[in-house]
Amino acid sequence: MADAEQSEAPVELQGRNVIYCGVCTLPPEYCEYGGTVRKCQEWLEKHHPDMYSRIWSPEALEAATAALSVDAQKRAAKDAQKKAAKAEAAEQKQASKLASSVVTIKRIERNKKKFVTAVIGLEAFGLDLKKVLIVVFFLKVAKDFGKKFATGSSVTKLPSGGEEIVVQGDVSDELEEFILEKYKDVPEDNIELVDDKKKKSSG
Amino acid sequence: MFKKDLQGAPKQKLKSSAQRALRQNLLATYPLLTPYIEEILPKKGSLASMKLPDRNTLYVLDSVPLFYQNDGSDLLPHLKLVHRFPQAFPSIRIDRGAIRFVLSGATLMAPGLTSAGGRLPVDGAKPLEEGKEMEQSIVEDGRWSRELAKGEPVVIMAEGKEEACAVGTLAAGTDEVKAKGKGPVVEDAHYLGDGLWNLNTA
């Protein structure tokens, strides 16, 4: 039976491989609805020039708009504009957040001579990651730290929102260097070292 | 259904008996997938399920999302799967003007289908007949060869586009849509760029 099927439609039996836009993840023909049209266009032109010329050719665009009434066209354009503006604003916000965010490396005294080192504020450098992925990102970074210093390293949620990575031992100086070296997009000036003595709860 | 970004839950491997059941269920719902079933669900593959909010379950094979299911109802294909096997799912087509609404999660309304750019099943088509499950396909210009009943899963194509833009279940049969020409047709669809689409399944 398999033979019969193969001779019938050998090509169709394979699933199609669809190309997705590297910017907005939609199939490129839907990029115009994604809100990041300009970027998508650049990406497509670079990676799939043939597809680019097919989708964004003047004739194709004309055919696309011809079907709509003038009124609907206007509305669609307005909508697209609003979306693009929104995406742009989000991007800017992200950039400014990145510039103003500070990574704090805190040395916390645990027990007289024992310390842990906490890293707070890495969220902003999760970069273009989605919310879902940030947790994964943190876990990965924590693992990296642990490997580097051969100590335990964990991710904890802060009550104020956000997450911190706690590394066993006093590794604040090395940690700073390590972060700078490994995560190039963290600017040096944005790293802050703090020494935090434990409150005298023990008396 | 997935307007908001989803939080991925840990994946759970499915027992082989559950896999077999799923496979049968799948073929019962989508008989046209029969020739491709080995490619979609290889017997040796390790299928995993992922719990999503609102009692939805997503089935994932080697980090490729395949199907999702809402609380025991029909299996619905993930759009990435639809893109791989577009001919295996009953489809309707919306006109260009409706695309942007559907892609922002609006309920699909009948006028988007009845207008010049929309495509409903062929006029005078018959509903599904027993034993003729394999004899359906796209005929002439994006129209499906039989009427689709209320509650049936359907893929939503778009005028001027090659790929599907949404997947959902019909809130009204296609014959009813033709007759009435207004009202909601597909509610709570899974569309391009929604939470399910952007979900990280790795």
From TrEMBL, chain A:
Family listed: Belongs to the DENR family.
Which GO cellular component term is one of those annotated?
A: cytoplasm
**Which proteins does it associate with, and in what oligomeric form?**
Interacts with the 40S ribosomal subunit.
Q: Any idea where the SUI1 domain is?
A: 103-183
Q: What is known of its domains?
A: The SUI1 domain may be involved in RNA binding.
- Pfam families annotated for this entry? DENR_N (PF21023), SUI1 (PF01253)
Q: What is this protein called?
A: Translation machinery-associated protein 22
Predominant localisation class: cytoplasm
Sorted keywords for this record are: Cytoplasm, Ribonucleoprotein, Ribosomal protein
Cell membrane among keywords: no
Gene Ontology BP terms: formation of translation preinitiation complex; translation reinitiation
Please list the GO terms describing molecular function: mRNA binding; translation initiation factor activity
What the entry lists under InterPro entries is as follows: DENR/SUI1_TIF, DENR_C, DENR_eukaryotes, DENR_N, SUI1, SUI1_dom_sf
Domain of life, per lineage:
Eukaryota
User: By its UniProt entry, which SUPFAM superfamilies does this protein fall under?
Assistant: eIF1-like (SSF55159)
Lyase as UniProt keyword: no
Q: Where in the cell is it found?
A: Cytoplasm
Automatic annotation (TrEMBL), chain B:
Q: GO CC terms on record?
A: cytoplasm
Keyword Cytoplasm tagged: yes
Please report a single Pfam family linked to this protein: Pre-PUA
One Gene Ontology BP term is:
formation of translation preinitiation complex
Q: Which residues form the PUA domain?
A: 90-193
Mind telling me which InterPro entries this protein's record contains? MCT-1/Tma20, Pre-PUA, PUA, PUA-like_sf, Uncharacterised_CHP00451
- Report the subcellular localization: Cytoplasm
Give an example GO molecular function. RNA binding
> Which UniProt keyword terms apply here?
Cytoplasm
Tell whether Cytoplasm is among the UniProt keywords. Answer: yes
Give the family per the record: Belongs to the TMA20 family.
Q: Which NCBIfam families match?
A: unchar_dom_2 (TIGR00451)
Q: What does this protein do?
A: Involved in translation.
**Can you name this protein?**
Translation machinery-associated protein 20
Taxonomic placement = Eukaryota, Fungi, Dikarya, Ascomycota, Pezizomycotina
